Amino acid sequence: MSLVTRASLDQKLALAKRCSHEGVMAGAKAAVLATVATAIPTLASVRMLPWARTNLNPTAQALIISTAAGMAYFIVADKTVLASARKNSLYASNRSNTTA
């Protein structure tokens, strides 16, 4: 493998790691926000509404909250990674057009 292709592969690997790290961080932030945004109304409704008090045991409450957090994490992480990859792809194509 030539030195140029090795450097190119290393650069692509570094970009991929950065994209995935950005996705993880954005997903984690979204999951925390979704947890708080879901926990407050869920716990408040269990305290105030007779139907919720009767039908939503602690397991159901935890399931509601964790489902919202999980969905937020994966949706935001996926969108962040795709946006970052798209940006890097456009940057790479613009860079190759200017050097050619």
From TrEMBL:
Keyword annotations: Membrane, Transmembrane, Transmembrane helix
InterPro entries: Enod93
Key word Transmembrane helix present: yes
UniProt key word Membrane: yes
TM stretches of this protein: 21-40, 60-77
Listed Pfam families: ENOD93
Name of protein: Early nodulin-93-like
Source organism: Rhynchospora breviuscula
